[in-house]
Design goal:
Blueprint lengths: L3 H6 L2 H62 L13 E5 L4 E6 H17 L8 H24 L5 E3 L3 H26 L6
Antiparallel strand pairs: 1-2, 2-3
Helix pairs in contact: 2-3, 2-5, 3-4, 4-5
Length: about 190
């Protein structure tokens, strides 16, 4: 069988056109592959950025909720009567007597435990806020222990130690300012004065 007549009919133009067709097909497949690869990389990058954004948003939300919970503990320390005050003021303005409410002290400890541990807010607060809250807790424990040892049944202890009264006042101010600073600097949230 003689195949020479087939070679005679194939010209260099035909070979070039076939080569160009194969080359065009190869380039098209390569471009499609690279476009698909780039699209998948871009999608993964966008998905990762979205997940990071969601995690960051969740972190800020938890930090904000923790600050709100810590702010709620201030109701025990404020001098403005609100039904939760640890300190009650009696007597005259010239000679006030300051009493520590034992029931509210227990309520503070219970609320602190709920806010800090059960709700997990302690994880998201700064060490300054945590330290001050627990410094207050230590003094509340001491006063409750003193009450238990003395057998006091009145529900209140007269605070004769002016330093302790000053401590509660200063703790309120320190916590109030620290929480506001935390909200402003960490969370970029302004709170009214």
């Amino acid at each position: 069988m003689n195949h020479t007549y087939l070679l005679a009919e194939v010209t260099w133009t035909d070979i070039a056109q076939t080569a160009i067709a194969f080359l065009t097909l190869a380039v098209t497949i390569f471009i499609a592959y690279m476009a698909n690869r780039w699209a998948m990389e871009y999608w993964h990058k966008q998905k990762k950025a979205e997940i990071n954004y969601q995690l960051e948003n969740l972190r800020y939300q938890n930090m904000f909720e923790a600050a709100k919970a810590a702010w709620g503990l201030l109701s025990f320390l404020t001098e403005k009567e609100n039904g939760n005050n640890l300190l009650n003021y009696k007597g005259t303005k010239e000679k006030p007597e300051v009493y520590f409410s034992l029931d509210r002290g227990r309520q503070y400890l219970s609320e602190l435990s709920r806010v800090f541990y059960e709700q997990g807010n302690g994880v998201f607060l700064t060490p300054e806020i945590n330290n001050e809250i627990f410094h207050v807790r230590t003094n509340v424990y001491k006063l409750l222990d003193k009450e238990q040892r003395s057998g006091n049944t009145t529900g209140e202890i007269l605070l004769t130690n002016e330093g302790l009264v000053t401590f509660f006042r200063e703790s309120y101010e320190k916590l109030r300012i620290t929480i506001k600073t935390y909200l402003k600097e960490k969370l970029k949230y302004e709170i009214a004065e």
